[in-house]
Amino acid sequence: MTPLAGYLLVAALLFSIGLAGALTRRNAILVLIGIELMLNAANLNLIAFWRYGPHPEALTGMMFAIFSIAVAAAEAAVGLGLVIQIHRHAHTTDLDQMNRMKG
Amino acid sequence: MSLVFYAIAGLTLAGALAAVLLKNTVHCALALTVAFAGLALLFLELDAQFAGFAQILVYIGAVAVLVVFAILLTRGSETPKDGVYSRNWLAGLVIAAGVFAVLGWAVLESARALPHETAAPTVTVLQIGNALMSRYVLPLEIVALLLTAALIGAVIVAMHEKEGQK
Amino acid sequence: MIETADQIFVLLKHWLVGLLPAGWQPVAGVVLSVVAIIAVFPTLFALTVWIERKGLGRMQNRIGPNRVGPLGILQPVADAIKSLIKEDIVPLSADAAVHFLAPLVLVAAVFMGFAVLPMGRNMTLVNMDAGLLFYFAMGASTELAVFMAGWSSRNKYSLLGAMRAVAQMISYEVPLLMSSVAVVMMTGSLSLTKIVAAQNHYTWGLPHWYIFTPWGFAGFVMYAIATTAETNRSPFDLPEGESELVAGYHTEYSGFKFALFFLGEYLAMFSISGLGATLFLGGWSAPFSFLTWVPSWIWFFSKLMLSIFVFIWMRGTLPRLRQDQLMNFAWKFVLPLTLLNLLVAALWRFLGEGWERWVVCSAILLLAYVFMGWEGMRRGHLGPRRYRYAE
Amino acid sequence: MLGEGILRGLAETARNFAGSFVSAERLTTVQYPEQRIAPMEATRDFPFLVYDGADWEAGLRCVACQICEKECPPQCIYIEKSKDKKPDFTGKPQFYPARFDIDISVCMSCQICVEVCPFEAIKMDTEFELSTEDRFGGLLLNREKLAKPNEHYHKIHPTEAAEVDARLAGEKAKADAKAKAAAEAAAAKAAAHVAVPAGTEAAPGGNAAGNPTAKPVEEESRA
Predict the structure, then answer these.
(1) What pTM was computed for the model?
(2) Domain D47-157 listed as CATH 2.60.40.10
(3) I need a surface site. Which of A50, A59, C264, D216 has the fewest CB within 10 A?
């Protein structure tokens, strides 16, 4: 098994762990943690393909990863801001209880 | 496949699993930090030095602390009374396992065509700087705009309403 | 002879590594350098504890420790033994694993920071291309260690202290990075050895240190303010404000773990003032051209001790800042000035040689300083306190 | 201008730092065991009982009136009155303390016992290095440990001791004068009685010359 396949498998496993976390956990913040893991798995794929790809000097994969890190940080900030606001309004971060659209 | 790769991959996956399975939310956040650190080591293993340090700086330095602050602000550190997993947790698990099966199959099928061993590209920060300024200058400006918008948006969303609770 | 004195440690290391069989040499080289750092800086820590207590004493017209050993020189040894012997109490409700890991993570992260500091001519442990970014990545992970310490003690005071410490470290990390970005912009490289090399030449005997340029001096002042806040020292030591927060995030620690926190704080002070010396004070380059015969590592450590003395001097002088003053100062004064400093550095670069760039840059910076200071003082969140007496 | 105060403050501490190496009067630290500051006149630590003359037991001024025991805020004085009497400095027979204990670990050096003592029997000592290994009985000073000669009192509080002695001497003189007057009156009456049949009433002894400064202390059995 080539090193690239190894990295891809690790990224795939990381992605599915993140997905499992996002789907099964009850606390909103842990869903966000799951999403962060999925994003990171994607970054790992990008850099693995860049490293073992045909033209590493073009830096495309790495640039994608750096931009994706920046965007993911922004997303995490806004996501957590939303979670805090929901908690302040509905006094719970339990996703199963947030099923009412009432304002 | 070097031993170092297995060790770091094991650390990352253990951190990720712990982040998803642990009961205490703050422990999950700390396990998430271990996963981020493992990923940064993986990036360094892939000779992407700048991405590895940026990952540490951004994720461990900022996002992990942000997650932990959010947990404390929403009183998440007390263990919830009615269980940690949502009601239909089995469905989630099955879907995740399905996704992994598909991805794993795809990777293993195409394993033969993947390049074996290529020379490690030496990437200096100068090249990244030049690339950022020449080819990726538009994405850079857009990300700068996005970060500012996210900064202001997050503050406005999480700000106390002056006129008290609705 | 001068050359060997300057390269004494490098030659020593090569000689020692040469004794081993070829297979082990790379590993032995790394281990030797790591052991050297782990040996040098804790002894420097012991020396600084003694200097701090004697210095603070002398500033307050008293003598300072003089009982343990001549002139009290063995006081740090006594403190070390005391903290080793003391019973290590872990509160029952504390979260044992995180409580135990916090000091280790803190000290490990701080020790990693030393890997990229150029302590002398080709005496950098790891000559990284993105050395500065590595340093700040390690610096950023200390915040998490502080939070782990505060939260795991399950004690209101330590949680409050940890919250204050993390908030302060985050809000002062931005100016810290911004002020060093100006230096990176001028040298065109993140590698610390290149930054020192760029400052290591002289005209009329004076060195080209960045502190002697307007944007460099402003950057150094902002950097110094940010470092004092980053290491929770003197005017910004709110997180462990003894008066109101007992001991902040390391309240529930005793014995060796408390000593580790103490060591971690001082090592952070060393490495961040070492970085300051490298970025603005020309790392290991001699202050005058006729002094270059002195070994380079002596200059690095003397600049380090000089900035340590300034830390102590500030601790002996300045009262503690309130949390809102601290935050106002960070976000409404230090950060805008560092951003402006970036602009001024760019302007400095494009105005080319000649005296007019000195005038223009200094004018902009002075104007900004005076205006922001005046505006801040007028609106009351900067400058001396205004008392409002009940009529 | 912002930052001026900081620079002035730093200059001040720098002056202190440099000054402490140069000028001697900046460093006022006294290295305690080796150097000592001479105690001021009014220093007070723990009480002691004053006695006149050579024998401490006979010379004790204390008459076990137990005022100090009642007044002592932390109640650290314990007195047991004697059965018999002994003459005091004016020759008048007075009680004396069979047992007089002060627990100096409880005593707070407030000097109330000295102020309320009508007989100038208890004064405040300046001795403070009283640490003992025995933590239970060590700090409970009995009568013997408390008794100290009047000369010691003169050594530690000279002016105060002089005043006290002058007052006591004055009292003694007044008491002697009264005793002498009473003696002469008795002698004159006795002489007159010789002319008149003797034995109407015995000349009153010295007790009329009670201590004028003290309120006549009525006998009070402890409850």
Answers:
(1) 0.83
(2) no
(3) D216
